[in-house]
Specification:
By secondary structure, this protein is mainly α. Helix content is 84%, strand content 0%. The radius of gyration is 18 Å and the shape is elongated.
């Protein structure tokens, strides 16, 4: 009886881990997309990065594909998370410096 319970337990753990990863990836992408959409386009040009529309398109398309596939296309989910993290860790601080008056803009 103990041997038959292990595969069932494994499936449950895998399901909950996949659901948690899916929810966290959607949250990260959604936060990055909302922040991107609420910023002025001129700030992106001043930083010398991709335009606002490009960032919004990359993150938005990946977010939509992540929601539609429910994390089934793991490569798209990971690309979306990577793009969102690059935006949040590289572009967002630069935009914040520009809007706070500490930057060069």
């Amino acid at each position: 009886m103990a041997t038959s319970a292990a595969p069932i337990f494994f499936d449950d753990v895998r399901f909950y881990l996949n659901a948690a990863i899916w929810l966290v990836s959607m949250a990260v992408q959604a936060v990055a997309l909302i922040h991107c959409l609420t910023q002025r386009g001129a700030g992106f040009q001043a930083l010398g990065t991709l335009p606002k529309g490009a960032w919004a398109a990359i993150i938005g398309v990946c977010l939509v594909l992540t929601v539609i596939t429910m994390g089934g296309l793991l490569i798209i989910t990971m690309i979306g998370v990577a793009a969102a993290l690059i935006y949040m860790l590289d572009v967002r601080p630069g935009l914040k410096d520009l809007s706070d008056g500490k930057g060069f803009w």
